[in-house]
């Protein structure tokens, strides 16, 4: 097991801070790869070479330069997997450093093993992530049995029928631009990862903004219940809302199921009142992804010509409530906490300002599209 300079430097600094002595770490060739004394970095340490070459339990150096590149102190072998991987040395008077010897040796070995395990976990995670990416976005079927075996080695059975949930923190940008917000995102990801892992054959993946849950095949009701559990757990722990898109249960390839769940998520994002959407329940949103953002922004500008961004936001909210009430003035006014006549006046005013009447069947469809485009991704739409 090789010792990296980065890990070695971290460990010698940590140990030196505890015992108040200079600490060095040498590799299997006797070269100092980490030291709290910068002048000794990358120099040869003959004492370490002796410890390694002669398999010594320790080597006490009585005076500076007793061996090439040494100073008085104690040097002990670092044993990893039963082999000497390097040497740790403590500089100082014999009586001062001997008492720390075995403790520092053991501490160094433990810290190196912990760091190695962390590095190995990162490597394993990258391997798993690459595999899942190929599975989700690539042509896994064409790889046949070889891909199935790769999955089996990672503990993933890709032959099982699956459902796909795609979850996202609502108003993600409120959290992604600060260190504290990023820590919250990481904790939410860990919570959802744990919940998916507790489901037999559940597989978790993530992108920069989304949490992808690959679940064993099940009825919509069970999938919805799991999505609700995710939402409840995240809200309970972090007071954060999570929106979820789910695929359709039709035996599609995983990549197609993911795309459908993603479309359902975008539909959920565009509808302020909905937090879980299934692909089979969306209609207009089926082609929303095909329309460029620039075209959506231009459409909104044409409908709300001359309006400020704040005015557009206010009108979108009013129209959304109006549409959710199926055009009922009484129901919409109640939800907006205004009188029915006040709402009637506002709708007439909107008609005068835009030239389109939200109360007419033909014009209401234009406003409905504008509301959908606006809510879908308001942060990316430019109204300047």
From TrEMBL:
Alphabetical list of Pfam families matching this protein: Diacid_rec, GGDEF_2, HTH_30
- In this protein, which residues make up the domain named CdaR GGDEF-like? 145-267
Occurrences of domain Putative sugar diacid recognition (ranges)? 4-135
Specify the domain of life of the species encoding this protein.
Bacteria
Q: Which SUPFAM superfamilies is this protein grouped with?
A: Homeodomain-like
> InterPro entries per the record?
CdaR-like_regulators, CdaR_GGDEF, Diacid_rec, Homeodomain-like_sf, PucR_C-HTH_dom, PucR_C-HTH_sf
Q: Where is the PucR C-terminal helix-turn-helix domain?
A: 316-371
What family classification does the UniProt entry report for this protein? Belongs to the CdaR family.
Can you name this protein?
Answer: Helix-turn-helix domain-containing protein
- What does UniProt list as this organism's lineage? Bacteria, Bacillati, Bacillota, Clostridia, Eubacteriales
């Amino acid at each position: 097991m090789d010792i990296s300079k980065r890990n070695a430097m971290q460990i010698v600094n940590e140990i030196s801070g505890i015992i108040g002595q200079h600490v060095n770490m040498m590799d299997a060739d006797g070269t100092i790869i980490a030291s709290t004394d910068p002048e000794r970095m990358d120099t040869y340490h003959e004492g370490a070479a002796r410890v390694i070459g002669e398999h010594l339990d320790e080597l006490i150096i009585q005076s500076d330069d007793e061996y090439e590149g040494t100073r008085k102190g104690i040097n002990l072998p670092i044993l990893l997997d039963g082999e000497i991987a390097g040497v740790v040395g403590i500089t100082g008077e014999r009586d001062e450093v001997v008492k720390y010897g075995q403790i520092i040796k053991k501490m160094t070995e433990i810290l190196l093993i912990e760091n190695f395990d962390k590095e190995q976990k990162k490597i394993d995670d990258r391997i798993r992530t690459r595999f899942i990416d190929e599975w989700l976005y690539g042509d896994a079927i064409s790889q046949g049995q070889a891909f199935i075996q790769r999955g089996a080695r990672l503990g993933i059975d890709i032959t099982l029928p699956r459902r796909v949930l795609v979850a996202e923190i609502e108003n993600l940008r409120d959290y992604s631009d600060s260190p504290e917000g990023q820590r919250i995102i990481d904790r939410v990801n860990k919570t959802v990862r744990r919940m998916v892992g507790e489901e037999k054959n559940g597989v978790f993946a993530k992108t920069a903004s989304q949490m992808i849950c690959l679940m064993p095949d099940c009825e919509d009701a069970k999938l919805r219940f799991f999505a609700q559990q995710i939402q409840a757990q995240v809200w309970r722990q972090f007071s954060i809302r999570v929106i979820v898109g789910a695929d359709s249960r039709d035996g599609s390839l995983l990549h197609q199921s993911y795309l459908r769940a993603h479309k359902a998520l975008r539909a959920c994002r565009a509808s302020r009142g909905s937090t879980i959407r299934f692909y089979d329940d969306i209609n207009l949103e089926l082609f929303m992804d095909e329309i460029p953002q620039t075209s959506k922004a231009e459409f909104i500008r044409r409908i709300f010509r001359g309006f400020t961004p704040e005015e557009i936001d206010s009108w979108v909210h009013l129209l959304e409530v109006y549409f959710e009430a199926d055009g009922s003035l009484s129901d919409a006014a109640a939800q907006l906490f205004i009188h029915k006549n006040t709402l009637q006046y506002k709708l007439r005013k909107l008609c005068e300002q835009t030239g389109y009447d939200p109360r007419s069947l033909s014009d209401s469809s234009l406003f409905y599209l504008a509301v959908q485009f606006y809510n879908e991704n308001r942060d990316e739409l430019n109204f300047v």
